[in-house]
Amino acid sequence: MVRNGAIVLAVLAGLVIGGCGGKKKAETPELKGTIAFGVLAPTEREGELGVRAKDLTDGAQLAVGDLTSESGDR
């Protein structure tokens, strides 16, 4: 029983010591370049598939707009 307590104490001490890093300031990575992504959507423009295709493409365009506006704020 004492041995288990000693092991737990050693592990906790290691975690505490490991968590005490240097005083180095965290660097914020610089974002540059282009990111391309695609959307897999139905190509039919009629019926239920057409509605789903429009929803998917509209959502992708909104996401691109959000990402573009966020990167311009930095």
Task: Tell me what you see in this structure.
The protein is mostly helical. The protein has a domain at 35-74. The chain contains two helices and no strands. The chain has helices at residues 2-19, 47-72. It is elongated. The chain starts with a helix and ends with a helix.
Structural shape: elongated
> Structural class of the helix and strand makeup?
mainly alpha
Task: Specify the number of helices.
Answer: 2
Strand content: under 5%
How would you spell out the order of helices and strands?
HH
Keywords:
single chain; 74 residues; mainly alpha; elongated
Compact description:
This protein is mainly alpha-helical.
Write the layout of secondary structure elements.
Layout: H1 2-19, H2 47-72
